[in-house]
Specification:
heterodimer; A: mainly beta; five-stranded mixed β-sheet; 27 strands; B: 497 residues; mainly beta; Neuraminidase; Immunoglobulin-like; 2 domains; four-stranded antiparallel β-sheet; 34 strands; 39% strand
Amino acid sequence: MGVPVFKIRFVIGLFVQLGLFGLVIAPALGQDPNDDRVEVDITARSGLQYDVVRFTAKPGQAILMKLINDDDMAHNFVFTKPGQRQAVATAALALGVDGEAKNWVPDHASVLWSTPVLPPGEQHVLQFTAPVEPGIYPYVCTYPGHGFLMYGAMYVGVSMPELATDQHVPELARQGKAAQKQFHAWGHKRPLMYRIFMPDASPAAIAVGLKHGQNYCWDAGQCRLRYAWYGGFVDPSPVWRGNGNGLAGVLGTKYWESEMPGTIRVGGGDSEPEFLGYKKVDGQPEFHFRVNDTDVYELITPLHSIIGIQRSFRIPNNTQPVSLPVGPTSRVAFEHSAGKLENNLLTLSAEEARAFTVFIGLIK
Amino acid sequence: MRAAGIGDYYSLENIATPKGLDPQVGGLDFMPNGRLVACFHRGEVYTYDPGKGEWRLFADGLQEPLGIVAINDREVVVMQRSELTRITDTDGDGEADQYKTVCDDFGMTGNYHEFAFGPARDARGNLYVGLNLASSGASIRPELRGEFRHYGLSREGFKASSYGRASGRMYAATPYRGWVLKITPEGEMTPFAPGFRSPNGLGFDLDGRLFVTDNQGDWLGTSKLFHVQRGKFYGHPASLAWTSEWKKGRNPLKVASGEFDAKRTYATVLFPHGLMANSPTQPIPDSSGGKFGPFAAQLFVGEMNRARIVRVMLDKVAGEWQGACVPFYDGAGLGLGKGNHRFVFGKDGSMWLGKTHLSWVGGQGVQRIKWNGKTPMEVESMKLTDSGFALQFTKPLANGLAKPETFAIQRYYYAYRKDYGSPQHGREPVPVTGVQLLRDGRTVIVSLAKLNPGYVYQLDLNNIAAADGSLLVNGLVCYTLNRLTNGDDKAPHLVQK
């Protein structure tokens, strides 16, 4: 896996540049800090990632930072005072309905510089002078839910530790896994699905990367959702680089994992579910399986306002009561469109079960 | 005279694949509209327009697909690790949107070696697939699909570091590993024949006979080509645990090999290891009707470990098929390379081939071989006679070659035993007692001093030329003698331990 690439260009100051052409300027004049400006391009990428997770600057040095939003969702970029990343991200969340108008930048004493919220494909340049006070100045996307994963740090007059031990960058970057390597002729795309050996699932697992950095593992061996995570998709290389004697790696943070065995039940009995395939709906698989001689369909789509997924079930012409294990429902935002929830088991009448929806979100 | 090479008769072209694709090919076929369709290691299926040289993504997300059959211009059936899948472009936009599970009625332990091969399609549309055994190179995973049953180990036992001693080198801990399965177009599955180790190649010949290759290893002294029929047993016992007559818990590792020998069906053709092929792949009949040279209807078989495609010459003896193998396209320097995995003939009679390695010896990419219309001097067929062999060449022989010195022949055999592979046993030269050239000028009857069942007869033909001056291209020919013309197939010397 590639370690994040540093795209920092040091634009050499006027004096030196001239010197290259032989027009000698006496170095005794000294150098203005502005003559040695840091230019850094930081790209927001699919899976709630900045491609550059840290860079250095001298105290008082001029900085020209360009944020490029190469993702399919909106992002911003906020510098904070040392140690204030989480406080600022939390304050942004608290903006609630006012957040959009404020570009999700809270009125917080620790905010130093910020970009507006950039829609996909847009860019924004920030110009500022690095603080004179040496320190580690965090940056973070304060768009709701993103700050847990999408951050980095500017080192001002302080040397960087080894990346693998740097607590100021996301865990994935420390592990060298921040970037999803390109594995196909089409480059990066979402939705994307792999049938591949996954951890904590049967050998017939399916991994799906949805838009907005949402991912899930659905088990075709058992016809049920196993877990969901946000961030990058998967690292398939442990499986693909060899003969298959490996598991794909989950790139990101699991926020929900089924704690209940068994899939949806239609009517009585404990018949084994039979996997029948899937149809692509806007690139996303709608799984088809049969339980107790009844056809069941499940389509999982990403939520837009928060990190989370929507599980849409169809059981056309259903005539029997249905129960669906949905646990855990605590620690996540859980909603259901119909039925009764008791002990993490959702029960629905025959009619309710013909089409119903379950939501699992990261934040309450 | 310079040395003859297959490159004087055939040309080879590299087909560029999409940039960024890992071009390890799991399967190749042609759609009726003339588009090539190929599945690749990372789960993609592409179609290719040979006229325009353009690839187009058809499907993706598959799990190590190792075989593909085009049903029509919008539909393919692919064998992936976990299932046989019908993939359809229902809206006609060129990209598939529907993936229907045709059959996943077999187990998976998650062991890396449980590859799934095929499908080969018969005239009625039935699909045949081959399921690899698991390898003791790894254990089983915590979660399985299907029933678990193993003769030597519990699931807990598979967690111990010493599992490999009790599991067997290659094992079948879930249903139908080591089997060939028959699946109707509607998805109804019949376990068809057990006894396989690593059947990485299934194909029908032009007469509708199913042939399957298997790879040297435990119980396989050398790699093999089998003519596969329902209910017969093809030699590797691990899969017998999933037959109805096998007593639950009985351990095939503790059964004398003579019992399995009595049950087994011999290979049609043995590929001598280190000499002919080490990892044979797909058998494919020459369906070109003569557009690909003088081998119409014969089988070609790919080879992973060297730059070679092998040709098979079948011979029906006392009602059963056996036969010989000979290199066809051979040698580095002609651009072929290793990893020759999957094949299909185009309408123009050219052979398309796809390569893979899956981290073993092999190659990658797509190539195309065309015949230039000139007939190479080759052994065209080899048939057993009462006293030796009849060798028919593609062209009349030059004068003066019909003499015993021209035909250097030796024989040897491979032991049937649970150990990995087998050395060549009983290796000895076989004196040629007579050589007769028939009136067609191209058929030679060779009489031998010893002719017994249970041996490979290896011919090294080094000084043969055609009357037109061209040299014999491939002189290494290995005939698998299972049966004499009188039907005698007794070969007790094959069984070891």
